[in-house]
Design a protein that fits this description.
Blueprint: H1 2-14, H2 18-24, H3 30-37, H4 57-69, H5 73-93, H6 96-108, E1 113-116, E2 132-136, E3 139-150, E4 157-163, E5 173-179, E6 185-190, E7 201-212, E8 216-217, H7 223-259, E9 261-262, E10 265-266, H8 271-299, H9 305-330, H10 340-348, H11 358-368
Helix pairs in contact: 1-4, 4-5, 4-7, 5-6, 5-7, 7-8, 7-9, 7-10, 8-9, 9-10, 9-11
The structure holds flavin-adenine dinucleotide.
The site of flavin-adenine dinucleotide has 23 residues, from strand 1, strand 3 and helix 11.
């Protein structure tokens, strides 16, 4: 029932607008309030705070799958980032006062969220970050900058990784929540990207921003630990989107190769095409089983960092391989943006980089093997 309802939401609210949003480089804020009204935000948040009271990640998975099926992954990322990636920081780390202040708006879509870790000088090496938050009475004074921040233009609350003790690496990190309007907080450009055009990705600048201590998320000095606890869910969300994007690409391609003829026969009936399609079918099915197992583990509170890292690198590398092969099977039309596979190709490239690169995922797994 949730899938049917969300599919209708995509058909009504997202698909008719996707071309305009891709050109605008951003989705309107009303997409979030519409999603909130439709019960598609904060499904796991308790009803007392305006959520759905259903803490089962399969609901999130359905949203990720349906936006990919419709070829609207860029716009969909606005919602999945808010729901799958940012929200868990709030539900797991907020004090009761913060929950009362923020969760109802996050669930209704009136508050849009983002998470800012990456800086111009560092991405993979998070502990090397240089944005500082130095305590001054009841505030932290934040200085520095972030870049590549998804929902960066639209966001009202930004979970920001900072150094509260710049002399330390991991142990000096904390999370503070910046709000849309704070003196000294400025947004830079909405960055021009290769793909994901309907997704706003921005630079953020902080110059003596006074952030109340009441906006500290979790424990001072535990920021890295909090990130490590929340990143597996982020990575699983990206992995699941990768499998869904692969499934969508294969579906569009199957339709195409049955209709298009060359040398007097459908191009899908060449042995090379059949083998390619069969390989994709098999690999996607295998990936789906692994992702499903990871989701069961996440629901049971047992998903490990290594399992999530494995899902993330494998499924996004699969996505890249699949969309590339599908473009090839479309021939020249695969390079034309009027075909969904062309946008899927541009959108896929970032997935092995954001949320932690393939190389960093392999580092996480490799280290756990004692090497
Ligand atoms: C569209 C988009 C959206 C994003 N959204 C967000 C967001 O919402 N929030 C946020 O905080 N960030 C976001 N990012 C940033 C993203 O997470 C980083 O780009 C990513 O983590 C890589 O960091 P980097 O770009 O600094 O690359 P670098 O860390 O400089 O890495 C460059 C290359 O070196 C390799 N490398 C680095 N270290 C090692 C190592 N130890 N061993 C082997 N190879 C290594 C990497 O794998 C990579 O191939 C986004 C990025 C993009 C492009």
């Amino acid at each position: 029932m949730f899938r049917t309802a969300f599919r209708q939401f995509v058909d009504k609210e997202i698909s008719p607008n996707i071309e305009a949003w891709e050109k605008a480089g951003i989705v309107p804020r009303e997409l979030f309030t519409a999603a909130g009204a439709a019960g598609c935000l904060g499904m796991g948040v308790s009803e007392a705070y305006g959520g759905g009271g259903e803490d089962d990640f399969r609901y999130n998975l359905i949203i990720g799958e349906e936006v990919q099926r419709a070829g609207t992954g860029g716009a969909g990322l606005s919602i999945t980032l808010h729901n799958d990636i940012c929200l868990p920081y709030f539900t797991s780390l907020c004090t009761d006062e913060q929950k009362r202040r923020w969760l109802p708006g996050i669930c209704s879509g009136e508050i849009i969220t983002a998470v800012a870790m990456t800086e111009p000088g560092i991405g993979s090496d998070l502990a090397g970050m240089s944005t500082t938050a130095i305590r001054d009475g009841d505030s932290y004074v934040v200085n520095g900058s972030k870049t590549f921040i998804t929902n960066g233009i639209n966001a009202d609350l930004i979970i920001t990784a900072v150094k509260t003790d710049p002399t330390q690496r991991h142990k000096g990190m904390s999370l503070v929540v910046l709000e849309r309007v704070m003196d000294g907080f400025e947004r830079g450009r909405n960055l021009e990207k290769v793909g994901l055009h309907s997704q706003d990705t921005a630079e953020l600048f902080f110059s003596d921003v006074h952030v109340p201590v009441a906006n500290l998320l979790g424990t001072e000095g535990q920021g890295f630990v909090h990130l490590v606890q929340n990143l597996p869910q982020e990575r699983l969300s990206i992995a699941a989107a990768g499998v869904a994007a692969s499934e969508a690409a294969l579906g569009w391609t199957l339709e195409y190769v049955k209709e298009r003829n060359a040398f007097g026969q459908p191009i899908g009936s060449f042995q090379n095409s059949r083998f390619k399609l069969a390989e994709m079918r098999t690999e996607i099915d295998l990936a789906q089983v692994y992702v499903d197992r990871c989701i069961e583990a996440l629901n049971a509170g047992e998903l490990t960092a290594e399992e999530a890292a494995g899902a993330k690198w494998w499924c996004t590398e699969l996505q890249k391989r699949v969309v590339d092969a599908c473009v090839q099977l479309h021939g020249g039309y695969g390079y034309m943006l009027e075909f969904p596979i062309a946008r899927a190709y541009a959108d896929a490239r970032i997935t092995t980089i954001y949320g932690g690169t393939t190389e960093i995922m392999k580092e996480i797994i490799g280290r756990s093997m004692g090497v």
